[in-house]
């Protein structure tokens, strides 16, 4: 598999981690999930992300998930693997293992101990050195990490850390950050890098309009992200917004803390993508009223999609 580069674009869907009802890894559902994402038209997959419940997996389970995904894809799509860790040694160890299995690159979020601009730069400089030739994604997700990285610092990182090839943009609000980074690359102040956006695709049309290259996030209907990105690539932002608007109520519901991932897994199980909607403990569980909310949203979404021919 070719390695991740600054030219990456499209939809790298954040994959869930399927579990059985008793919380064990469900390897069969990993296979069906991979088939589903590939059939939905995604460009690549990202595994062991925050919403992939990576912190709940053992080191051995993490490698098992990656190996299973890579084996099922057999090189047809690139795979990015989250390797964030408190220290550089376990990060490097996991990165070397997954790259040896055929991953295209890895993703690294900053630890909460990063507080200043100089610390942010020094951390990613150290990551670049530790990972050697492995290309990596800078995950900028202040809402979770509590680490804010200013555009000027990101410019410096990308100019001086050559194996950092992509920004996973999840700042919120963050449209001005995309604008600033694209202005910097257009002026020659920094090299142009890939920007893929997160936050469940909640701002994807606007992010594409600001110069993003696509999405790296999860949603129970990856077809939405694929459709939006394709419409922008075809020069049709109005169609992109029309597609996005049809899915927005459900995407909004998924953004709730706690039950958001539970609702995503509920819909994926309902669609036959995975066998069980179980989150590994500790994890939220939908109430009967929550399920009724989701079912109502699904019914209304189906009506709207038929109306717009999507």
CATH superfamily, called what? Aldolase class I
With strands numbered from the N-terminus, the spatial order across the biggest sheet is 1-2-3-4-5-6-7-8
Q: Give the radius of gyration.
A: 19 Å
**Mean pLDDT over all positions:** 96
What is the topological layout?
Layout: E1 10-14, H1 27-39, E2 44-47, H2 59-73, E3 79-82, H3 88-101, E4 105-108, H4 117-131, E5 136-140, H5 142-145, H6 151-160, E6 164-169, H7 175-187, E7 194-197, H8 204-209, E8 214-215, H9 222-233, H10 237-254, H11 259-270, H12 288-308
Parallel strand pairs: 1-2, 1-8, 2-3, 3-4, 4-5, 5-6, 6-7, 7-8
Helix pairs in contact: 1-2, 2-3, 3-4, 4-6, 6-7, 9-10, 10-12
Any overview of this molecule?
With 310 residues, the chain is of the alpha/beta class. The chain has one domain: Aldolase class I (TIM Barrel), CATH 3.20.20. Helices cover 49% and strands 11% of the residues. The chain is built from twelve helices and eight strands. It has helices at 27-39, 59-73, 88-101, 117-131, 142-145, 151-160, 175-187, 204-209, 222-233, 237-254, 259-270, 288-308, and strands at 10-14, 44-47, 79-82, 105-108, 136-140, 164-169, 194-197, 214-215. Helix 4 runs parallel beside helix 6 (151-160) and helix 6 crosses helix 7 (175-187). The longest helix is centred in the last third of the chain and has 21 residues, at 288-308.
Q: Can you give me a brief rundown of this structure?
A:
The protein is of the alpha/beta class. Helix content is 49%, strand content 11%. Strand 4 (105-108), helix 4 (117-131) and strand 5 form a beta-alpha-beta unit.
